[in-house]
Amino acid sequence: MTGMNRYLLRKIIYPAYRTLRRDNVLRYLDEMHRVQVMERDEIRAFQWAKMKKLLEHAAGNVAYYRRVFKDIGAEPGDFKTEEDLRSFPVLRKSDVRENVDDLIADGYRRSDLSYDETGGSTGQNLSFYIDSASSAAKRASNVRMNEWLDVRIGDRWAFLWGVRFRVAGSARLKAAVKNWLTNTVIFSAYKMDMASVRSYLDRLRGFRPDVMMGYPSALAHMSQTIRVAGLESISPGIILVSGETLYDWQRDLIEGTFDTRVYNHYGCCEFGALARECRCRNGLHLACERVLMETVPVGKTAGGEDLKEIMLTDLDNLGMPFIRYAIDDYGDLDWGPCECGLRLPRLRSVLGRVYDLVRAPNGNVLGGTFWGHMLKENVNKFQVVQDATGRVKIAIVPDGEFDEKQRKTVLDRVREACGDEMKVEFEIKKDIETTRSGKHRYIISDLPGRSEERA
Asked: How far apart are alpha carbons 159 and 185 in whole angstroms?
């Protein structure tokens, strides 16, 4: 049993379901189709009309933001441009944890809102609420981004994912029915031993997915296992990766193993689907209808480029507004034209999480790409942990032998990038544990005063 007939899902069941739900997903989808081909000024005007409404709502109906406006001595009408917003305080995760009740708007009961939480890559939970409008916009954004890659409702999906897709226990039958109705199969990113990978491949050959989606680290590990064991792979229509920073060496490895193209997707629990590559793979188009993204310079990269922190505003969630929310990522936006015809800006230079960067004594900031290129030879897995500005610990699961010559090469390159005072400690391991959600963190910054604790 491979799943529901895709024609029935696409043409009959899905439209009927959305109509019965009366959730405005189809209305949002129509809106997104219009906005994504507008000129830049029109898109900006569309965003700012929503932003103006959100600021007025927050000032009048949200206790947390009433205090913010009072503290800065401002009114909603004082903010007319994105530059004006720079004086509006940033909302950090610690602020959300400490003010959950005060961030819920007057007139909204918790029962009116959808509860969600994320442990993030740090394992520290963040609880929040989403209103029905934002929930509908999230769903529409996923459908629209799938269309960019010619993926339609009813196509077969295979997930290699973590705890958010677990199907164990009393919910197993319900989940199985739902997966059959949505043409979905789910595999655990926790179980990636040889026997599990063989089992996954057997199931995938019968299922023949149009789309395979997973964490880059899990798909890269699966690719390595397939190659080492000489297993016969599959070739899905496309592969989507999300949940972690995608490095070039991972893309090359996954594409070479599965003989299909890999596309990068950027999202989070708080905001849902935010950006995705189109067929041109020249940056990730941003869902401007749903969010206002700012990129604020906070320093320099190792290459001397501006290091920009991403701030996000959910333009639809009036129930629990997130205004200028620090998602703990670095990146930049490009409004230049794309050959695909979409006018939405593209997210570029995503260096990854704030806490997934190494800060060197000489002032350089090094993301996962630096470490990935350096540690790809004779290395199955690696993890770089920084617990002091002048020290990193590199755990390595070798693929064969990691000898003294390679250690010296790594040490020389690290000191070249970070300065001679950077100390490097190596640890050879049999395996490296994943996070609670099944992800693998390549870089861990345990430096005091991370962005989350910044004022």
From this structure: 6
Which among 248, 242, 283, 43 is positioned nearest to 160, based on CA atoms?
242
pLDDT by residue (tens digit) across 391-435? Answer: 999 999 887 788 888 888 889 888 888 888 889 999 998 888 876
**DSSP E strand boundaries for 178-248:** 184-188, 211-214, 238-241
CA angle 247, 252, 253 (to 5 degrees): 100
CA–CA separation, 318 vs 175, rounded Å?
31
Residues 300, 330: Cα–Cα separation, whole Å:
11
At residue 336, the 3 state secondary structure works out as: coil
Closest to 240 in 3D by CA, of 261, 257, 222, 263 = 263
Predicted local distance difference test score (pLDDT) of residue 306: 77
Q: Cα–Cα distances in Å, from 12 out to 4, 7, 19, 22, 359?
A: 12, 8, 11, 16, 54
d(CA 337, CA 345): 8
pLDDT interval class at 452 (50, 70, 90):
very low
Phi, psi of 225, rounded to the nearest 5 degrees:
-60, -45
d(CA 269, CA 256): 30
All structural domains of the chain: 1-350 (3.40.50.12780), 358-453 (3.30.300)
Residue 371 pLDDT class (50, 70, 90 cuts): confident
Smallest Cα–Cα separation from 182: which of 17, 29, 6, 24? 6
Backbone angle region of 275, left / alpha / beta, with phi > 0 → left and psi within -120 to 50 → alpha: beta
Handedness of CA 156, 162, 165, 169 (dihedral sign): positive
SS3 134: helix
Q: What is the C-alpha separation between 54 and 48, in angstroms, rounded?
A: 9
Whole-number Å distance between alpha carbons of 66 and 403: 60
Are 313 and 98 within 8 A, CB to CB? no
SS3 232: coil
Q: Look up residue 76 and give its DSSP letter.
A: G
Q: Measured between alpha carbons, how far is residue 196 from residues 112, 217, 222, 238 in Å?
A: 41, 16, 10, 22
